[in-house]
Write a structure and sequence with these properties.
This protein is α/β, with parallel strands linked by helices. The protein has 13 helices and 15 strands. The mean pLDDT is 96.
């Protein structure tokens, strides 16, 4: 594999409705896409870095800089055996996993296309369809939250995740559990609490949540281990886990019972597979987290979720939940049973809509 050229694009996509977390409220996504020419094919990847350094220190601007000035010089003119080698090749650049993932996933797509097989198969996936959940941002009122959950359940989603933050936690969980006593329900705090809040978080135990996601500091595995010993609800780690070694450390010290794997946070498919394998060895279930991706990032999430240990419904939902019109065809669709069929076509299995992508592009740079 020789990488001939990469093209960086920033596109702007407006969400159908604002999405609010403990970080703030968002109604527009600035998305960095990577188009890579390699193996006689064109592969596509997506950088999940946000507009602000709140979820992660990476932003669209930092990722663009890292891709152009540091990652591209490493891979240009170099003969690479396969996309699986790119993770280790980029290791001299510390961190910046979201920038790395954008390039690495594009090369996985190109390699799968050149071999004429689905990306899911190239990754070693075994599932023909994946179970889907949905992530619901903080709503203006409990009535609106309940109504939104009703709509998502009617659409077939198998698991409901709601965002919580201090002052907006017990009441929404109680309201949903009273209205929907049997549903799979979880809460995501995005690091909004401190260990001193353990008595408050203990109160959530009575609502039989599937899990509580990342309640404490984004880099604090130790405090999560202390909290897990004080609550019955399984803790799921997200922001804390950037590689397989951190996953192993968190599991062995008892900081979590579930791990959310995100391609951007893991640095791409190779890092995600290594994280997946550690969790499988330790009998820790995993699921795929979402970052308000366009169809390209969503397609990569579908492929990753076909791996064996992705046993819990993830945040991979239909394109139409977020966008009036996506940038791929066909768009990602969820069945009435709450699942997505894993594509069998070569590569990511969805065709990027170049006309749509070009119309949304605000900035482009070609590196060759």
């Amino acid at each position: 594999m020789r990488v001939r050229k990469i093209t960086l694009r920033e596109i702007h996509l407006r969400l159908l409705s604002p999405f609010e977390t403990s970080f703030g409220r968002q109604d527009l996504r600035r998305i960095l896409l990577v188009e890579a020419e390699a193996c006689g094919a064109i592969g596509w990847g997506e950088c999940t870095a946000g507009e602000t350094p709140f979820y992660s220190y990476e932003t669209v601007e930092t990722a663009w800089h890292i891709l152009r000035d540091h990652l591209w010089p490493i891979v240009r003119r170099r003969e690479i055996g396969s996309a699986a080698e790119v993770w280790d090749l980029l290791a001299p650049v510390r961190g910046h996993n979201m920038a790395k993932a954008a390039l690495e996933t594009a090369l996985w797509d190109a390699e799968a296309q050149s071999k004429g097989i689905a990306l899911a198969k190239l990754l070693g996936g075994t599932r023909e369809e994946i179970p889907c959940g949905v992530s619901i941002g903080i709503q203006p009122s409990l009535a609106e939250l309940v109504a939104k959950v009703e709509r998502e359940l009617a659409a077939g989603y198998q698991r409901i995740k709601i965002k919580i933050k201090p002052g907006h936690d017990i009441e929404p969980v109680r309201a949903l559990r009273e209205r929907f006593p049997q549903i799979r329900l979880m809460a995501d705090a995005n690091s909004a609490y401190r260990l001193e809040d353990a008595p408050l978080l203990q109160r959530l135990d009575e609502y039989y949540l599937m899990m509580m996601e990342q309640p404490l500091g984004w880099d604090d595995i130790f405090s999560h281990a202390q909290l897990q010993r004080q609550i019955a609800t399984p803790i799921c780690l997200d922001e804390c886990i950037h590689d397989a070694e951190q996953a192993r450390a968190a599991i062995e010290c008892g900081a979590c019972r579930i791990i959310n794997i995100k391609l951007g946070r893991a640095g791409g498919h190779t890092g995600a597979r290594r994280m997946h394998d550690v969790c499988r060895e330790k009998s820790i279930p995993v699921w795929c987290g979402g970052m308000l991706e366009s169809g390209i990032g969503r397609a990569h999430n579908v492929a990753m979720s076909s791996l064996e240990n992705f046993s819990l419904p993830g945040d991979v939902s239909a394109s139409r939940r977020y966008w009036d019109e996506d940038i791929i065809e066909p768009e990602v669709e969820v069945s009435r049973e709450g699942s997505i069929r894993v594509p069998s076509a070569p590569g990511i299995g969805y065709a990027p809509r170049r006309d749509r992508i070009e119309s949304l592009t605000r900035h482009r740079e070609v590196l060759e």
